[in-house]
Automatic annotation (TrEMBL), chain A:
<dbReference type="InterPro" id="IPR000515">
    <property type="entry name" value="MetI-like"/>
</dbReference>
<keyword id="KW-0812">Transmembrane</keyword>
<comment type="similarity">
    <text>Belongs to the binding-protein-dependent transport system permease family.</text>
</comment>
<feature type="domain" description="ABC transmembrane type-1">
    <location>
        <begin position="73"/>
        <end position="288"/>
    </location>
</feature>
<feature type="transmembrane region" description="Helical">
    <location>
        <begin position="269"/>
        <end position="289"/>
    </location>
</feature>
<keyword id="KW-1133">Transmembrane helix</keyword>
<dbReference type="InterPro" id="IPR035906">
    <property type="entry name" value="MetI-like_sf"/>
</dbReference>
<feature type="transmembrane region" description="Helical">
    <location>
        <begin position="110"/>
        <end position="130"/>
    </location>
</feature>
<feature type="transmembrane region" description="Helical">
    <location>
        <begin position="76"/>
        <end position="98"/>
    </location>
</feature>
<protein>
    <submittedName>
        <fullName>Sugar ABC transporter permease</fullName>
    </submittedName>
</protein>
<feature type="transmembrane region" description="Helical">
    <location>
        <begin position="205"/>
        <end position="230"/>
    </location>
</feature>
<dbReference type="Pfam" id="PF00528">
    <property type="entry name" value="BPD_transp_1"/>
</dbReference>
<dbReference type="InterPro" id="IPR051393">
    <property type="entry name" value="ABC_transporter_permease"/>
</dbReference>
<feature type="transmembrane region" description="Helical">
    <location>
        <begin position="21"/>
        <end position="43"/>
    </location>
</feature>
<feature type="transmembrane region" description="Helical">
    <location>
        <begin position="159"/>
        <end position="184"/>
    </location>
</feature>
<keyword id="KW-0472">Membrane</keyword>
<keyword id="KW-0813">Transport</keyword>
Length: 298, 324
């Protein structure tokens, strides 16, 4: 079409190629180069500065022998599993409720989504205050006469991660609700009519007809939540600082602490490589399912 | 699924009235919209009570933290110590806000959050502009000037968006240190531009690709070049997507904590980092009202963006989410 044969190939679309230099540099230097660099240096015994003294899998052995890392992984698993289930269920329920042709739909949606605009730092600090045992919910309920009422998730190592979960869900369910609502709006009205004529109860219509039709949206939501889970860092820093003790540590914080606080670069590299590995385990099968079989269109 | 589809449209007229896409019928706007206000007696049915009850309860849960933050920030410390965090203030004071803005201490600096605010603005404005310029030109080149290898690099970019930041942080620290930008605002701006690139490029590429191709072809026939088409045809036609991109970047960059804490020095910390340092500092008496005022102040910018932009915000995150 418009691009007729030009004499030399390399300067065809030259402007476009020049315009794409930042993208190419980012893709190659930062994303490919940076990742490869970190993976390679995770096999060294770098401490304060990166050095090329390779020690095999030493860093990984030390990593998996460290209590802090094991707790981090455990917390991430708990946080991740609950966050995924609750965000999907609550997000879908809220969307389904909003989809009942109600009044003030915009108002409700605005209220459900606003936490998503706030940073994790703000979210964490707000919930830190509400969950504060001396002033927050616990104190208020005790003030009402229930003297033995205990609700101090942020000060109890056994349940601290659930305290973080409350804040995390507050932040993200609005987004999932929005996605789900868009999905519900995409369902043909005729399907509802047909189901109603057949006398299928509403919950059955949702469960067996609407939700299977929204498979794409659910997959997107899962990918979105999952990629958010692995990044959880600010929320922990603001809400608990990893405490009490090390009971609410997460991998992203482990990496930061190792690299920038305890001058233990090798550990940081090994831990971040493990994070990368977990992402690969999640993303590759998904990408294969989504784009593998069909003609690829991003 | 297929058996339900075959039945569609059988008795359409039967339920048409109640399934009509409800025009938002706000009180007072009883202008002739046709007879859409059907069955008003059903307004207080059991179903509606449950429906609105659940929604209102959920709304209260979502509003609770904001409410608590606001009322805590206007109470005096004695009142906070004695009272209930959910009860409205007896005496409203704005002293905590003043203190949070101009006196609260982090480390050696005691000039409050105003410093962090200024730093955040200085980070935000160039980062947003730079990242959007680069990403829009990129997306335009990818969508309209397909060149060899373009898709490959784009795929790397999108896949890269899934890599945890932690994996790439240290190499960037080294690169920035090499060029003397580590610890400076410029360095942080570059980092924001880099990590904003995947999602923004995707956004612009898809938008430009959805524009009618004839437009581009006609301009080419008329002899317009790469930049001419970009500035005179594409740019004026893509204002909405620029607004979406700006919303996305302003909230994203303002809310960033990780990059701020890694790539700047204490003097240059953005507002989120400074806020965290103020609130979670272990020295001195904890002033909860000042902390809450500081927290609200930090959340104010994205909240304003959110409430002003409304539907566009939703569109921005949907665009980012659905395809990202």
């Amino acid at each position: 079409m418009a691009v007729t044969a030009r004499p030399a190939r390399w300067h065809r679309n030259l402007s476009a190629k020049i315009a794409a230099i930042p993208m190419i540099a980012t893709a190659l230097v930062v994303f490919v180069g940076g990742t490869a660099w970190t993976v390679v240096y995770s096999f060294t015994n770098s401490k304060l500065l990166p050095r090329e003294k390779f020690v095999g899998l030493d860093q990984y052995e030390r990593l998996w022998g460290s209590a802090k890392w094991l707790i981090s992984i455990q917390n991430l698993a708990i946080y991740g599993a609950f966050s995924l289930v609750f965000a999907l269920v609550v997000g879908f329920l809220l969307a389904a409720l909003l989809d009942q042709k109600i009044r003030f739909e915009d108002t409700f949606r605005t209220i459900f989504l606003y936490p998503f605009a706030l940073s994790f730092i703000v979210t964490g600090l707000a919930w830190q205050w509400i969950l504060n045992p001396d002033f927050g919910i616990q104190a208020v309920v005790r003030g009402m006469g229930f003297e033995s009422f205990t609700f101090d998730p942020l000060y109890n190592p056994d349940i601290v991660i659930y305290g973080v979960l409350i804040a995390g869900l507050w932040h993200e369910t609005g987004l999932i609700m929005c996605l789900m609502l868009a999905g519900l709006r995409g369902i043909d009205e005729d399907i509802w009519k047909a189901a109603r004529v057949d006398g299928i109860p509403m919950w059955k219509t949702y469960l067996y007809i609407v939700i299977p039709m929204m498979r794409g949206i659910f997959v997107t939501a899962v990918v979105l939540i999952a990629s958010g889970i692995i990044k959880v860092y600010d929320l922990i820093v603001a809400q608990t600082g990893g405490g009490p003790g090390i009971s609410s540590e997460v991998p992203a914080k482990y990496v930061y602490d190792a690299m920038f606080l305890s001058q233990n670069l090798g550990q940081g590299f090994a831990a971040s490589t493990m994070m990368l590995l977990s992402v690969i385990i999640v993303v590759v099968p998904w990408a294969y399912l989504e784009f593998g079989g069909k003609a690829r269109r991003v | 699924m297929s058996d339900t589809v075959t039945m569609k449209g059988k008795p359409l007229t039967y339920s048409a009235a109640e399934t009509d896409p409800a025009v938002p019928r706000h009180a007072g706007s009883a202008v002739a919209v046709g007879p859409s206000g059907s069955k008003p007696q059903k307004k207080l049915s059991r179903r509606n009570i449950v429906l609105y009850g659940v929604l209102i309860l959920a709304a209260l849960y979502y509003l609770l933290p904001l409410y608590v933050m606001v009322i805590t920030s206007v109470k005096g410390m004695p009142e906070i110590r004695l009272g209930n965090i959910f009860s409205p203030p007896v005496e409203v004071t704005f002293a905590p806000w003043v203190k949070a803005w101009s006196e609260a201490c982090t480390g050696l600096n005691c000039d409050g959050l105003s410093r962090g605010f200024l730093n955040s603005v200085q980070i935000l404005v160039p980062s947003v502009i730079l990242s959007i310029i680069i990403a829009s030109v990129n997306g335009y080149a990818l969508a309209n000037w397909k060149f060899k290898g373009g898709e490959v690099f784009f795929t790397i970019l999108i896949v890269g968006a899934f890599i945890p930041y932690q994996v790439m942080i240290y190499p960037i620290v080294i690169l920035l240190r090499e060029v003397g930008l580590y610890g400076s605002l410029t360095g942080l701006i570059i980092v924001h531009t880099i990590f904003g690139m995947p999602i923004l490029t995707l956004l612009f590429r898809n938008y430009f690709a959805s524009m009618p191709e004839e437009l581009f072809k006609a301009a080419r026939v008329d002899g317009a070049g790469f930049w001419q088409i970009y500035f005179r045809i594409m740019l004026p036609m893509s204002l909405p997507i620029f607004v979406v991109a700006i919303i996305l970047q302003v909230t994203g960059i303002w809310n960033d904590f990780l990059f701020g804490v890694i790539f700047t020095k204490p003097d240059l910390y953005p507002m989120t980092v400074q806020l965290n340092n103020i609130v979670n500092s272990t020295q001195g008496v904890i002033e909860y009202n000042v902390n809450m005022a500081a927290t609200i102040l930090t959340g104010l910018v994205p909240l304003c963006v959110y409430f002003v932009s409304g539907k566009l915000f939703v569109r921005g995150i949907a665009a980012g989410a659905v395809k990202g």
